[in-house]
Design goal:
The protein is mainly β and 451 residues long. It is built from 1 helix and 33 strands.
Amino acid sequence: MRFLTSCLLAGVASFSIAGGASASEQVAAELAGHAVLPAMTMLPPPADAPQMFQISGKFAGPAGVRVDAPNSVDGVSKAGDQVRPTGLTFPLVGQPVQGFSGIRALGDDRFLTLTDNGFGSKANSPDALLMFHELQADWEEGRLRRTDTVFLHDPDKVVPFRITTEATDERYLTGADFDLESIQPVGDSYWIGEEFGPYLIEVDQDGKVLSLVETLVDGNAVRSPDHPGVLTPPSPGPVDFQVKRSKGFEGMAVSPDGKLLYPLLEGPLVDAQGSPEKHEGKEALRILEFDTAAKEWTGRSWLYPLEADGHAIGDFNMIDESRGLIIERDNLEGDPKDACQGEVTETCIAKPASFKRVYLVELGEPGQAVRKIAHLDLMDIDDPNGLARLGGGDGKFNFPFFTIENVDMVDENHIVVGNDNNLPFSAGRSVNEADSNELILLEVGDFLQRR
């Protein structure tokens, strides 16, 4: 069905783990290419999909009230607790390609990526179809071209809970069913890391679900508030979840031989009192290990300590058997040059982006915290040749987006980094203009050689 178109254990907060992350050195990055896919890149739903998917974002407005009239609600950014218009309106005619989250370099400037859940939550995305894509980057022209799109579907009823399209034969999956955040090709299948469960989802090359895997950490089930098995109690009291909403699997690396996946939670595990798992006083995230042949968790894990509590990760890919790339970011957006000078209005940025980094890490022995070897500052990229298509100037370039959710090694000297543009709700590149999808090619040979 390919469619081609133009608690965990109580006391987790005091968990102690051997080893530790070292202070990492900043390494310079130079812009080697910049390619853009415009924000309003839309495609029609599959011909056999229900009529409801012809218009998307009908439930993405204030309070989730249904709005059927296309382009009747203004898109706004709320990053940094500031409301700014993005210049776009919704609901949208068709399905937006927006929201790239998770990337793999395929060679020849081709990239595998996926669209996340749609409009940001389980409640507001039942009319957003789940899909992954192949992109072709033209660095000379500064353009991204989508060459293939595959929609996820579950005709064999592998998914054990009710989905949005339950009453149909095709059973296309939507953003009310799953929140896709990372993808890895393994053999003839694709493995997808997901946030609502959190789950691992295996699909074939046509997007058909082959298996769905519940998450286990140290032999115990881990669920988010959006897991279908987590129910609100009839009276006030504790709710049984171990990872906060939207903090499930964000990045997911794969070993070079494809035998092991390394899903990484976006937020720390929490105990029954809501206290987060920490390492040496800092919030820390679990990197788990999964056997793709056995389709089982190995029981091994590592910790990724955040540089500051409240940070999040954006993506994770291995570059060899032991070293990988992890994006760590704050929850802000906007270029510091657009910062408000005095009065805060919607024509300036109250709290611009500050912490946007790519870390080179070493996993080391299981049961340890990863070692942070070095990092790149995405807010301080050299651009001596003036290659920036958007932003930039005076030999410098930055990537001031709220969610930066794509990183992978392209070759021994280059990595690719990309944003999730959260259409129509992010405006980081310009103050009042919705973000496009951008991929940047960075020359970082010295960085990739660090050990």
